[in-house]
């Protein structure tokens, strides 16, 4: 009987530990992706109440362009990001400790690695595949998200 009570307590402890809702990390992140098929500039903010704001202007099918043209594209996307940020509405997301999804949704929107503290924004464009954009934490959003 004593063993049964210990097993029952251990089982209840595991159940309680697993049932605690995961709290999403809070903060701000920026990231970008630069390839011939797509260029993306992204901003992400998670508030203490768990609401998520994100904006990710993009340009598709850029192709092979000069460094000067690419710099103009980066500047345009940075300006688009700054202009669109105020319109980015805070949204609730389901968070399981690693993956953010739209409420009741299946497709992941963001991935968080709690061990490495790495955030990735998942960008879907058209019928093409998705890309995972590594995000870096920032104190404040910078005018030039392409600066490292």
3D architecture notes:
This protein is of the alpha+beta class. The chain has one domain. Helix content is 24%, strand content 34%. Strands 1, 2, 3, 4, 5, 6, 7, 8 and 9 form a 9-stranded antiparallel β-sheet that branches. A hairpin with a 3-residue loop joins strand 5 (94-95) and strand 6. The longest helix has 18 residues, at 2-19. Residues 4-17 have low confidence and may be disordered.
Shape: globular
Tally of strands: 9
From the alpha carbons, calculate the radius of gyration and give it in angstroms.
20 Å
Helical residue percent band: 10-25%
Structural class: alpha+beta
> Helix count?
2
Classify the beta-strand content into a percent band.
25-35%
Low-confidence stretches: 4-17
Alpha carbon gap, first and last residue: 62 Å
Order of helices and strands: HEEEEHEEEEE
Domain count: the total is 1
The chain-level mean pLDDT equals 84
Largest sheet: 9 strands, antiparallel
């Amino acid at each position: 009987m004593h063993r049964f009570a210990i097993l029952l307590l251990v089982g209840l402890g595991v159940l309680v530990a697993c049932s605690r809702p995961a709290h999403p990390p809070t903060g701000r992140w920026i990231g970008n992706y630069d390839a011939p098929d797509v260029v993306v500039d992204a901003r992400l903010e998670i508030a203490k109440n768990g609401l998520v704001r994100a904006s990710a202007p993009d340009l598709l099918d850029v192709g092979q362009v000069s460094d000067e043209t690419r710099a103009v594209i980066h500047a345009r996307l940075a300006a688009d990001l700054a202009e669109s940020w105020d319109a980015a509405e805070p949204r609730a997301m389901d968070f399981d400790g690693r993956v953010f999804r739209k409420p009741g949704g299946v497709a992941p929107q963001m991935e968080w690695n709690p061990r490495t503290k790495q955030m990735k924004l998942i960008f879907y464009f058209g019928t093409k595949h998705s890309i995972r954009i590594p995000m870096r934490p920032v104190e404040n959003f910078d005018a030039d998200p392409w600066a490292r």
